[in-house]
Fold these 4 entries.
Entry 1:
Amino acid sequence: MNFRLRLTLLFAGLCFLLFALISAGAYWAFASAAWKELDQKLVPRGESLAGRIEISGDRASAPGGFGKGGLEERIDVVFSLAGKILLATSGIQAAALQPSSALSPQLMEGQVVLQDLQLVDGTAVRVAYIPLLRDGKLTGVLATAIPRESTERSLSNLAITLLVANAILLVLAAVIGWLLARSVLQPVKRMRQLAEEISLQDLEKRISLEGPRDELYALAATFDSMLDRLQKAVTADKQFFAESSHELRTPLTIIQGNLDLALRNPLATTDELRQTLRLARDETEAMSRIVADLLFLARSDTQALEMVRETVPLRALLEEVVQLLTPLAQEKTIRLEIAGEDVPFRGDRGLLQRMLLNLGENAIRYHQKEGWVRFGLVRENQSIRICVEDNGWGIPSEEYPLLFTRFFRGIEAKRQEPQGTGLGLAIIAEIARRHGGTVEVRSQSGEGSCFTVVFPVASIPTR
């Protein structure tokens, strides 16, 4: 059973239940009113007759209107206390109206008693027993009856009408429910069709549902948003693979070209061959760095990158990083400084060291000769801030949005280090993210840069 049919049956069932409850309530209200109206035709007239009936021995006077009153089938009978018929409009049917002994206590107290009886000929009647009192004493009983046929016929017709109406309404509810279900599920059908049509080669299609801002509109908007994210991810992956292939092809081309040249030259000297091998080694090392960086980013994207968290003293880690960077800094006569007190941090020591090395290398490589690079460590507002600041070339403000994009290299970066890959800052940002942190940049072209990694308080171990 498909969802549209289930939704239709649910709608029709709820409508039928509602119709049935309304019909039952209407029938009950009409029946109560009909029986009340019937009783009002009996009791007021009967009480009026009873007040004008005189009983003397075995005789009773017949007041005006006895046996009449607008209804020819009305039956009036006067009984003595002994149950003898003293006066009757119909002798054959009168005996059937004799009050039972069980009614005596109520009649003795002057109460009017209503009963439903069946006459000899099978006619169902409504009977009102009205006590005849004189000086507070019961002298007889007036039984006045009206056939129930008319009222029962009206109620039967009403019941049939309500049943037919409920059947018609049930059919209409089913039809309306089917149409509503089709209308409501139309966007879902479009989503299903769109999902069947979408492939990795065609991610341009969108639902773009129009109409009221309801739950289905929100679902369609969420679906479109998911497709937007998927398209961006696929586009980024394609670009990543294309740029990776390009970056790897360049050193391979250089290696292959130089080796081919050396092989074609039978007169190549030992120094020339050694120079070719050194070039191949350098390009291989560059390619190895690219492959390692790509592997790191790929494993991080697929959540396959395992992290070994431990308590790391950041001041000691900064000192190790400065020691490793010292030879590179000495080549450009750059002074390395460390500021700040030690702060314990819970994270992956190897990844943190790689992040700080990348930051330090960038600060040194993209720097004019002579200057300084300062590593700062501060804990403030329940967070840790690691700052790597320099007085180097700086970064143009228009490059800020693309700094952490994979393979992006600014104009100054290409000029200073032609062999760079453009993956360093992307790796820094990814390591910070895996530790729950962010990277902030403050720089101005020609006046240096400051990269700040901010980690949340949750990464600070409790003592």
Entry 2:
Amino acid sequence: MRQAGRSLPEYRELRKRYTLFDVCRRPEVCAEVTLQPVRAHGVDGAVMFADIMLPVLGMGVDVELVENVGPVIERPLERMADVERLRVPTSEEAVPFILEAVRLVREELEPERAVIGFCGGPFTVAGYLIEGRPSREFLKVKTLMYSEPTVWHALMEKLTATFCEYVAAKVAAGADVIQVFDSWVGALSLADYEEFVAPYSARILASVDVPTIHFGTGTATLLSAMAEAGGDVIGLDWRIPLDRGWAEVGDDHGVQGNLDPAVLLGPWERVETATRDVLNRAAGRRGHIFNLGHGVLPQTDPANLGRLVELVADATVEARV
């Protein structure tokens, strides 16, 4: 469960001393934060603690992570000259600390538990770089895509080259799975997704020889196109019933999801009902990774996460008997 550690007291204690980027730049601390939710909840894999904006720091972009806001860019990209200034660094040059953290986690974790590395999706990262901060409408992004497509594609080329090298370096360091988080790609129409994003996501997902997961939110109208772009598993958010989402994705892909993270803020009875609904819709088919439909909310009670893991494990065993 991505960001499951944010709800743990031990994580909050560490964050009193370190910013998010500070945690990432200290491999031992980064590895510890990655492993905390695995120890606490007994999940099947460790999602590496990182931020999707880390690789762009090596490209020459100044990023500040503002609490309760998100990534804020000092100089948003506006024209071709801004894109031309961007470098395409190697990961050993730009983020050696993340690669070392991957090695430490892989050494510490039991062989049967997966180390899941990730990168941001090209649209989502480009959105932050152009808008300058999180956005709902992505008006600056769409204006650039439509009016200056050569600038957009030049930016996507550089981001794609950087991310392909980044995920390949994570695999070399020990990551067993790579996930592409294109969190806000659901802001696009199907036609715009296929023209402006899909070819770049496809290249990133094809750049590694390990299983891949392709995820976005608000993507009910994009699922078949995302599956065509790539990913052995397609992430489903909570807005679409799992069986309907799987039908959109197709039987040749697995799916990940898709309990609403906010359900975990409610009473346990509702959590159990919603969880069993997800499992019933999966119907025991091979290829379902039970997960939330997005990241764990920080105010989630860690005890509920532990109960959720136990519930899913017990229900899965019951279904096989």
Entry 3:
Amino acid sequence: MNKISNYIVASLLIVFAGCGPSGKKQVEGDKTKTLPLEIERNHELIDILFPEGTEAEILGSGFEWTEGPLWVDSENMLLFSEIPTNTIHSWTEAEGMSVYLNPSGYTGDTDRGGEVGSNGLLLSPSGDLVLCQHGDRQMGRMTASLNSPTPEYETIVGEYKGMRFNSPNDAVYDSQGNLYFTDPPYGLEFNIDDPAKEIDFQGVYRYDTEGVLTLLLDSLTRPNGLAFLPAEQTLIIANSDPQKPHWYSYRLADQGKSLSDGKLFYDSSDALKKEKGLPDGLKVSKEGIIFATGPGGVWVFDALGMVIGRLKVGELTSNVALDADENFLYVTADSYVIRIPISKR
């Protein structure tokens, strides 16, 4: 077991015991270019993961606002959402950048404003592309195969007690195939004050394998990114509210049908006074290291909420993805899509 594993296992044991858009024109990317990368080093683990000399490679630039990166290992392909243009783009080492789907989040016939495209992207247990569709206000599934995509979708779930969702934002499946997702108002044309808003809270939901939808939380002001810690006993949820720029942790109870023991995982209020950005998307490595976008860039936490370090690229960061072998951290950063190599030494 390596040094990272030794440290993370120890921290996880403690946890378990306690059980805006730039408006720039899109241009073709060039991964030989880099963004300046400043690494804030708070613990020796950050030196192992991102040693001196680590660079942030630009895979694509000039987008209006990037989100929802997803690594598709079977295709050696990165997908990500460009929300304002209602588009999903793909990137591969061999082919570079190209449009993958359009429309991606809004398929209506009537023009509307707001953030209409898809946001979070993920694969279902059967390998289908699942999308948090802002404009259509639903969790949707692409009906075409991944290697021959067409903009055709079916609804997984779009309502709570007969009321349309606000705009599903991010989602994750557990190992049993149950879908967890957040529903803030960012995809509504007039955000929280939109007259079309039907639900008077911003929810966190579970849609199980039997088709039962359960409201898990209605108390967070702006629930956003979410991810499980290893063993799926704890769920981390980002709250992208400038008044409460927090990450929270919750224990899963009743076989995942409810959440309990909600705690403040980390409060980024002090950082927000100095740097732009809010808690947004996050991913957890196999060893329990948390990569979470927030004020100033990508925060790197251990399972106890200790800040190992931060990756600052000088741009607002929205979300992250890991490839299957966790050799790279992919980051959607305002008009850029970048990747940062992860060391295994």
Entry 4:
Amino acid sequence: MPSEREVRFLDRSSPPHIVTLILMAGLSALAINIFLPSLPGMVAHFDTEYRLIQLSVALYLAVNAALQLLMGPVSDRWGRRPVVLGGVAIFILATLGCILAPNVYVFLGFRMMQASIVVAMVLSRAIVRDMVPQDRAASMIGYVTMGMAVVPMIGPALGGQLDEMFGWHANFWALLALGIGLFWLCWRDLGETAPLSGRTLAQQFRDYPALLTSYRFWGYALAAGLSSGSFFAYLGGAPFVGDQVFGLSPSLLGLLFGAPAIGYFLGNFASGRFSTRVGINRMVLWGALFNAGGIGVNLALFHAGLGTPLSFFGLMTFMGLGNGMVIPNATAGALSIRPDLAGTASGLSGALMIGLGAALSALAGLLLTPGRGAFPLLWLMFATGLAGAITIRLVMLRERRLGLAR
């Protein structure tokens, strides 16, 4: 069981302050969505098609997933601090490359490199598990991601305003400045928390079967991946819906696009407040039902001919609420299968979640055409949200049979 050490802000001889963990996770989230209102303008700038520029989301998520498979074992072997600092440094250089890219292909190459910032999000969760005992992990992860939710809430709105005032490059200049600021903060405040085992990377990777053969690990990882899959499909398809279906300006699209983050904030607050008392399984189940239910109502309104920009984006707050309950609790469950492999488990579960998200984001971009409206996106989101609820219910039934209900 981890020992809780005194935390002193901007003192790297102690574990990092919660503010640092929030900002680490926050910049990772911001890098995904701040520029999404600019996608239509970037299509014109690079003289390309929406489906190609939309790969800036799907490819980013794919590399993001692959890196998580590597970063978990690496951080368990050499520590959280050097891996975080290295990932943020690469992100800074890649962001500069995005700004200077002469064509869409160079841009996409540097955009994939930007995915290195994922180490900050993955290891912020592993650091929590390093710092606090198992029964507090879900609660603290909930509070960390609750603070993180503020960033993507304002990110698209800020990105839309920056785009209208200065063009799409301004979003990446903002990411560059924030990346430099986060590097300084981590250098000053991020003390090492990992109980280093001294095992080689080969030994670390041999630990994967211990997780991959665990039904509970798969249950939690898939519940998180499927429930959040609706959100990643939203990332890939909502800019198209806002622009092509509703004809929204970049600033208004950015403002409405952040609606799920309001729900995500509330869901994470509920996780921080109630997870220890209610239990992680029931929190995941209720979150998955909120997610699927909100999307189902949205879909029903469109089939009834009543879909509007306010209903489409407003009901996405239920998706955010559900994911705010599912992700911290399912993550805590996955990390508690083998506490000594917290970094590896965080990376592997995150890779499964983000990998599925990358596929769904790309699929949303392929399915959406001007003549089909928002229906392909909503059906895709509803199906994945419902599958998340079914998955955690199966976990609960199995644990009940084994006498492990929690």
